Amino acid sequence: LTNPGGIGTVHSVPRLMPGAGAIIGVGAMEYPAEYQGAAEETLARLAVSKVITLTSTYDHRIIQGAQSGEFLRRMHQLLLGEDGFYDDVFRSLRIPYVPVRWVPDKQADHEGDLAKATRVMELIHAYRVRGHLMADTDPLEFKVRSHPDLDVNTHGLSLWDLDREFPVAGFAGKRVMKLRDVLGVLRDSYCRTVGIEYMHIQDPEERRWIQERVEKKAQAPDRDEQLHVLERLNAGEAFESFLQTKYVGQKRFSLEGGESVIPLLDGILTRAAQEGLDEVAIAMPHRGRLNVLANIVGKSYAQIFREFEGNLDPRTAHGSGDVKYHLGAEGGFKTPDGDSVAVSLQANPSHLEAVNPVLEGVVRAKQDVINKGEQGFTVLPVLLHGDAAFAGQGVVAETLQMAQLRGYRTGGTVHVVINNQVGFTTGPHSARSSLYATDVARMVQAPIFHVNGDDPEACVRVAKLAFDYRQAFKKDVVIDMVCYRRRGHSEVDEPSFTQPLMYDTIDAKRSVRKIYTENLIGRGDITVEEAEQALKNYQEQLEKVFQGTRDASTAPPLEPERQETVVDDLHTAISRETIERVARSQVELPEGFTVHPRLLPQLQKRAKMIEDATIDWALGETLAFGSLLLEGHPVRLAGQDSRRGTFGHRHAVIVDRATGNEHTPLAHLSEDQAPFYVYDSLLSEYAAMGFEYGYSVARPDALVLWEAQFGDFVNGAMTIVDEFIASGEAKWGQRSGVTLLLPHGYEGQGPDHSSARLERFLQLCAEDNMVVAAPTTPANYFHLLRRQALQSHKRPLVVMSPKSMLRLRAAASAVEDFMDKGFAPVLGDPDGIDPNGVERVVITTGKVHYDLLSARRKSESTKVALLRVEELYPLPGEEVADALAAYPNATDVVWCQEEPANQGAWSFIALSLPDHLPEGRSLRRISRKAGSSPAAGSSKVHEAEQAALIAAALEV
Predict the structure, then answer these.
(1) Backbone phi, then psi, for 610, in 5-degree steps?
(2) Residue 556 confidence class, pLDDT cut points 50, 70, 90
(3) Each residue of 739-753: pLDDT tens digit?
(4) 106 against 414, higher pLDDT
(5) Looking at the domain assignment, is residue 750 inside a domain?
């Protein structure tokens, strides 16, 4: 084989050398001689292409002429692409798309040229929509991907059009381009190691913003940036490799295979620091958490290793504690140029994605404190996810749906999916029906960047682009970093049991640090000396880890300090002046404001209650909120229909009947009052409650309330209750003063509108972890809310709130009760019957008290006294004992509840209250019989059950 074409020879007949059977001459690739005077544009229009001449000189004793001709014919076929010749070439060179096929050119007239120009624009659009399908984003498998929509032939174009110019309407900043150049830009933009989904976004400005930044030649990072990326990879890999050797067999959920997330996060935080943001708040699951704590948040290696050794820092130890890969931290991030930003990592449980709404609530609270307005958003939420959880957990969709809602906006979250292509042992085909794990994010029109985790430069480039998008549009953005998991789900698992072929590939792979180092040297971006220096830095990083280990092992053992619960002696009463000021606000409306004619009398009645000296439930709550606001304590209330109130009682926001404008009376009490936030939530319990919990954690000065539409629906948020509200302080030392308002009471509305499952909350109570209360008067509710806001030791409050009691006259309170009293955990008999004549004391909680009271008054019985336990946990045992002592002749003590025997407070009361009963007295129960359903579906059955219950409690 000879190639005289290399020196410009077009046609040659080389001489056969001794011993050779044939010699093939390859000429230069040039236009035929007769066309060499024409312009290239003319030749392209005429479909005249360059040609190459092959000659075959052969020994006819060995090769027949027909064989030589057949050989040249076969060469002609292959050069035209027959039998997949170019497919094989592209595959062997790892070119990630299919070649353009040879077809005869079709002569086009002027209209045909216009049609082709349109087809070129269709091709550009197709790549913008489908290009991600051909991107090389999987570090475990390279394969040439194709899609009919991205084939030039599908669009009526051919290889003859490659060198023809077409108008492209500003694509890549050009007016006209050759099709060859158009394809080059499209492939570089959408089909390399980054695939982008963004054409589902309806706003053309957002789409154009992305196009302007990706449809151009990517600017390679300079040498300092490359070395910084390598240093970050060194740090990430050093940390994991050391843990693997030092703590063999311990669970740590390593980042190995996904180390590029460290430079990726570094890129996000670098941009945040450069832009002067106040904080980056991160939440993430267990995978890679320790690495992020060490290399992004700045938690010391020594502290992490103490946790591996089981030694606790008494400053951070609380209650039960938690495993090391659930713990949070706060720190600072500094860029190589000296810019800095605060950074925090939220504590979270193993319940995947449960922390998502919590983080958003934390961020919203911090933004409200900073108060830089709608466009401030200077606290950046960054959520890390696993691929299986992002696709499978419904709270992901709930949290995404909050992104643009007035009550929940945080100015956009950067989501990073560490997509290791397996969920424990479950592969993608069993984990989701969607093509991508990130498809759920399309519903909020978030752009999605799929990036190959083996290309750390692309990861950093995408990270900075995602941050800039968030800053520009204040919307969520998703990065899907496709990587792999080098070991099992935890380090004690054997992954090849379930993914043998995947792990054969993984075991043969070099780490991303090694691949990146080799690529930098191979491209000439860094020298061997610089690579050796990077390796030295890697070794120094290991030495730093060793030193941290020595510090950890030589540190004296630390004993956890017991955290004592401090109960404040609070004054919750308010002055008459404050009462009148808050009540008056209900009818002080803006000039020209038109109140709905059916609502105005309610507001006027509310203001007049002060004169009547009787305050109902709605005004009692309003007084609690208003007085706190005047004292400088913010109030935030959110829930389904909470602005009006499910039962039409609150009307915290008044809507102008004529214009639709809104007026919030409690937001206009005084010029220096605290802010009042009241929002109707999305139809969610899980994410909505999680958000309020997070808000309360970050804003302890505020009264933060989440209200269920009916208490029954709180079970949709039990993950938040179990994992955060009930145990967050014990596990992480994370205090919350969140208040849950759960409408509860048996009124014949069926099994889904009767019970807030009081029994479940009481079962969770221990170690003074929260307060569970069922107030039965507006005044007691008022004092309870004010106590919750004013106490210094924050604990969650769960309130069994009323429904029918909202308008019950017997449940009203006197004005004086708000001015000279405090919260009463136990309320005595309201009728003042002769205590010496009482034979039975019926102890209740909640609405059933008024049913018993009404029936007793009708019967004029004086043998049964009624006590109310307003606070169930902590159980006011001494107060109950004191109340019982007032009835020396009562030998029968009854706990009466509306709920079935296996539900309600009975199980808790039966376990806790007998210790506080006077000597010789026992406690028995009167209730509905045990049932699997909370309540009867028939109102008639309910009435019969309730009548029997009341009769049994009062008959002596």
Answers:
(1) -65, -40
(2) low
(3) 999 999 999 999 999
(4) 414
(5) yes
pLDDT given at position 557 = 52
pLDDT at 408: 98
Look at the chain and report how many structural domains it folds into. Answer: 4
Query: Do 701 and 647 have their domain in common?
Result: yes
DSSP 845: -
Cα-only R_g, the chain? 37
Whole-angstrom Cα distance, residue 31 to residue 38? 10
489 is catalytic: no
- 263 and 380 assigned to the same domain: yes
Q: Is the preceding omega at residue 900 within 30 degrees of 0, hence cis? A: no
Q: Strand 797-801 to strand 771-773: parallel, antiparallel, or no bridges (unpaired)?
A: parallel
Q: Same domain, yes or no, for 806 and 849?
A: no
Which one from 60, 351, 450, 649 is the annotated catalytic residue? 60
The secondary structure of 403-469 as a DSSP string is TT-TTT--S--EEEEEE-S-BTTB-HHHH-SSSSTTGGGGGGT--EEEEETT-HHHHHHHHHHHHHH
CA–CA dist 116, 94 (Å, integer) = 30
Length of the chain: 956
DSSP SS3 for 97: coil
Pairing of strands 279-283, 379-386: parallel
The verdict on 885 and 808 lying in the same domain is no
Instruction: Annotate 781-825 with three-state secondary structure.
Output: HHHHHHHHHHCCCCCCEEEEECCHHHHCHHHCEECHHHHCCCCCC
Percentage of the chain lying above the pLDDT 70 cut: 96
pLDDT at 559: 47
Find, among 88, 83, 116, the residue nearest to 102 by Cα: 83
The phi and psi torsions of 424 (rounded to 5 degrees) equal 60, -90
Are 858 and 799 in a shared domain? no
In this structure, what DSSP letter does residue 2 have?
Answer: B
**What is the helix (H) or strand (E) element at residue 742, kind and residue range?**
strand 739-743
Nearest to 347 by CA among 694, 786, 768: 694
Mean pLDDT, all residues of the chain: 92
Candidate from 10-19, 320-329, 499-508, 751-760 with smallest mean pLDDT: 320-329
- The answer on 441 and 300 residing in a single domain is yes
For 142-157, what is each residue's pLDDT tens digit? Answer: 887 889 999 999 999 9
Contact 353, 437 (CB under 8 A): no
Nearest to 797 by CA among 719, 755, 880, 735: 735
Instruction: Give dist(CA 624, CA 784) in Å, integer.
Output: 9
- Greater confidence (314 vs 543) lies with 543
Return the sign of the alpha-carbon dihedral for residues 284, 290, 296, 297. Answer: positive
Domain that holds residue 13: 4-79
User: Which tokens hold the place of 783?
Assistant: 């004092």
Which domain-ending residue is among 31, 52, 79?
Answer: 79
Residue 708 near residue 714, CB atoms below 8 Å: yes
What is d(CA 449, CA 465) in angstroms, rounded to the nearest whole number?
A: 9
Strand partners, 695: none
- Residues ≥6 apart with Cβ < 8 Å to 92: none
Query: Are residue 759 and residue 856 in the same domain, yes or no?
Result: no
* Contact in structure between 487 and 507 (CB atoms under 8 Å): no
- Looking at the structure, do residues 397 and 286 belong to the same domain, yes or no? yes
- Say how far apart CA 510 and CA 488 lie, in whole Å: 17
Number of H helices, E strands in the chain: 31, 28
H/E element, 654? strand 654-655
Query: Is the Cβ–Cβ distance between 490 and 424 less than 8 Å?
Result: no
Taking phi over 0 as left and psi of -120 to 50 as alpha, with beta for the rest, 421 belongs to: left
Query: pLDDT at position 18, please?
Result: 87
Locate 896 and state its tokens.
């009466």
pLDDT the model gives residue 829: 96
Q: Which of 943, 952, 951, 934 is nearest to 747 (CA)?
A: 943
